[in-house]
Amino acid sequence: MAENIPSEEDSTPHFGMIGREQELHTAVAALQRPPAVVLVEGEAGSGKTRLVQEVMRALNRTTQVQVLLGHCTPLREPLPYEPLVRGLRGVTRLLPQTTLLPPEAAVLSTFLPELDGHVADRAHRPHRDEPHRDLVAEAVRVVLEALKPAILIIEDVHWADEPTREALFLLASKPPAECGLVLTYREDDLNAGQPVLSSSYRLPVASGGAEIRLGPLSEPDITRLVAQELGPRGAEALAHELFKRSAGIPLVAEEDLITLIERRKVVGQAPDGAAVQVALREKGVPRALREAIFERMEPLSAAGLAVVEAAAVVEVASEQTLLTQVAGLSPAEGTRGLIEALKAKVLCEASPARYGFRHVLARQAVYANMLGPVRDMLHGEAVRALEACDPPPLVQIAHHIWARGDTKNWPKAAEAAARQAVALGDDATASSLLHQILDQSGTDPAMRSEAALALAEIAHKATDYTRSVTILRRLLADPRLPELTRGRVRATLATLMVNQAGDITGYREMERAITELMPWPRCAVLSMVGMVLDEHTQTPDQITGWLDKADALLEGDDFAAGEAAVLSARLSVQAGLGDSAAWDAVAALPRGSADPEVHRQMLITLYNVGLSGIRSGLDERARGLIEECARLTEGGTNPSLEFYARTQLLRLDWLGGHWAGVEGRFSELAFRYPGMAMIAPIQGLVCGTTAAARGEWSKALEWFEALVEGREGEVTGDLEGAAARASVQLASGDPARAWATVQPALELLRHSEAWARGCGLLPVAVRAAMACGDDADGARLVDEAIKAQHERTARGFLAPAADAEVSTACGHLQASNDPQASAAHFGDAEQVWRKMGRPYPRAQVMEARARAVAEASPELAKEGLNAAADLFVQLGATYDAARCRRTAHGGPTGSVRSSVRGRRGYGGQLSPREIEVAQLLATGASNKEIAEVLFLSVRTVEHHVARALSKLGVTERSAVGGALQARSDG
What we know:
Largest sheet: 5 strands, parallel
């Protein structure tokens, strides 16, 4: 057991856990099933720390567990991850001398040099001083696993800085093996509407966990508490008074009891109920806590009082030197005063060599009782002492300047503190300070403008869309905002609406911003380039018109950032058309510009051109650019763009056939970047298509219907969504509905001239038209696509995905009239998909080609269907595989002979049919659902399930997914 949990020999009275028995049992039970996460919420004084202490004592009675304790403070230090560092400080004393930690632990050596000697590969130590939250969370995880069993406690998470909060979110999402994580916090002290970790956080399902909320004690609870400590005589009357005074807050009631117990020691007998009631009434209105702390302060000397008042003003637990300087004492007087305060239990050693109050209510009681001039003087001393620190804690300095009422110097200090917070990645603190600046009526207009722009920049980079938009709209509602600043803030809002939420009304906001910014051409140019994405209401000529206007405004102006922005937009348009010259231009872009805006535009170009590459079918080249974008934006330099890049990399993995666990990988990404609406359409498209390929129609439609409300803000998202929904409607036997679904999308396709993008719409639309008997409409659509393809070819543009879809559409169009030509078209498409490295559409056209030749060459068709089925099985597309095999072998069950012989021919390996069954088991499907998907009887499925479980070495259906993944990894 670590030393930071109070021992039973502590002289402070240990009250029983009255009124907290159930919470104690819940927390202990959760932590006995590691890995576990326990969240403890309650107002100040509700007993969160006490509960945690009792939980640790209970656990230590049955097992030896290493307990590490860190805590957050209300004024953030200029060192990120400080609560985690405090929790791990001294951890090397708990490790055997021969222990070597994994290389990931080297990240923590930035903060804890003592770990260097325990890291297996010191070469992994990061070069930058402030590693990213992902790396820190992983480093903490491996250290805890080296200590296991271990429990990390972080108290007062409502005061956590942003990097710490994000690292804790990642750690809690995947807690270390055989370890526990306990977080305490006050919900009332969180920013309005802000969850303690993230709105998307949920306790891990596969591990122990509990969310515990500590409410006030009831009057009967306090009666039991009083009777336990002072005896039953007069307990009810005293408890009634204590309950009224404490409102059921345990800490307040217990502080009253501590005072009464100490009085009993002085007078030699327990006070009766009536005497206590009189004594409490004589103390007047102040709460019991305030009375208790003042009684303890009475015997203090002038030096002791000075140290206590200094601690109340400084607010956070601090070193003796700082308290002495603020109190205006000599070193000797400071030492004497601090010792007095500690002995009187007014102050405590909150962490090694740092002293403060036992709880925030005690500090508030002392602070409120100080005379105003004394408080002001001490805040001034705190400013002088903190300014001498290296580096100076600017957030604390700004706080003290504000507290002393120095409105003249505070805005400048707050601005500096906000800059420091931004540099440390603590955008929440920076936002709070900037809002305060804007709230001041007398703030200098220039500073107000800078604060608004800084807030806009924070919102632009942030990954919480709703909160960012709220901030920006609040700024725009300020009538004091200068016109230039208003236009720039509105442009940021418009960009967020389009990029993160797919809200095309953002383009109207962008047009307003351009109008507002026209007196400042440079700013107008940066807004004009954002209009190139509006393909819903603009023609391609109108889009290029914006870029021509931007070029005209830049003429004669040496504005590198503007030129970079226009070039980025033009390259994005070129790449969208399939112009390979765009790729050469991107390769030539400088990667290390000293101009931040030029560098940002380069990153945007990498992403946009890479995204166009995915849509064109140039997957390998696209991956190179997007991976570079993700690498250059990691570490918090541009979280939203990093998120975009990692989302597209997930899509590329799926397109390349890596389907296993795709839903979980998207969920994990959403957890890491909460509040990003942009993930919804891509996640819906990928997960919906995967569900449809497995025969999970209702699940697929749920994903696809969500695409109607959540778009990328670009035409391609609408086209892909319509194609996906129509494909399920066709498979469900509803061609009329499918044809109706694609109609608006086809109009949008023609309006935007987006023929070079492989969005899946063309083949599905042709199938729907023919299924409805509208062969002529299907033929006209194919003619339009072929015309666009010839124009691309004539210009030397590359769009292999669109070319493959044209071939596929031609194959469907000719399937009934000219099967041989149809098969040839499908064969052309199959070669393109194979070369591109996209196995799912390749398997689809292989199946279509086999069906086309079925009448003329049954054996060739059977061979093709089985080949397509094998490819579908590799992907996990179980329904598609079963459909192919049923067609190939006929009969209502569609069983495959090789699968029937699997028990003899496959030994301990899963047969193809058993793989299909196991894949469906991993999704949670029942035997009946598996039978429907695979066209088998339920009895046959039962036999396959039994053999699959046996071969995988598991007894529970819920364990099949992990077993399959383990075999795949092996």
